[in-house]
Amino acid sequence: MAQNYYCKYCGFSSGNVNSLTSGNCQYHPNGTYKGYHVLYEGSIKSSYTCKYCGQASSHIASLTSGNCQRHPNGIYKGHHEPAL
Questions:
Q1: Which residues pair with 57 in a beta bridge?
Q2: Contact residues for 7 (Cβ-Cβ < 8 A; gap 6+)
Q3: Which residues make beta-bridge pairs with 36?
Q4: Are 59 and 80 a contacting pair, CB within 8 Å?
Q5: Among residues of the chain, what percentage have pLDDT more than 70?
Q6: pLDDT digits (tens, 9 = 90+) for 24-50
Q7: CA nearest 8: which of 36, 34, 47?
Q8: How many CA atoms lie within 13 A of 82 on its CB side?
Q9: What span, in angstroms and rounded, lies between the C-alpha atoms of 81 and 18?
Q10: Strand partners of residue 83
Q11: CA 75, CA 60: separation in Å to the nearest integer?
Q12: Which of 24, 62, 80, 82 has its CA 20 to 30 A from that of 45?
């Protein structure tokens, strides 16, 4: 079975780390496509939880697509980020 690697900001997946981290991320903290994908270093799980507010989702991409009410930048001023 092939290993998939995920971006911790947007949930984009790739078969290798080099390919993942060479692409620009739509939910990067510096702005839309203003930074590269960052490797999610946690384990693959059946449910992912936001480290700021506790919201859960079965996929990293669906979790990170929403704005977080308890984000450090302010209420709904950043996306959910999966806890390790």
A1: 48
A2: 13, 20, 25, 37, 38, 39, 40, 60
A3: 24
A4: no
A5: 99
A6: 999 999 999 999 999 999 988 999 999
A7: 36
A8: 27
A9: 21
A10: none
A11: 21
A12: 24
DSSP per position, the chain: ----EEBTTT--EESSHHHHHTSBPTT-TTSTTSSB--B--S---S-EEBTTT--EESSHHHHHTSBPTT-TTSTTSSB--B--
Token pair, residue 35, equals: 């930074």
* pLDDT higher than threshold 80 for residue 82: yes
Token reading at 50: 């936001």
Under 8 Å between Cβ of 55 and 83: no
Tracing tokens 């059946």 back to the chain, one arrives at 46
CA distances, 19 to each of 8, 24, 39, 83 (Å): 15, 11, 11, 23
Rounded to an integer, the average pLDDT of 49-56 is 97
Is the sign of the CA dihedral 15, 21, 24, 29 positive or negative?
positive
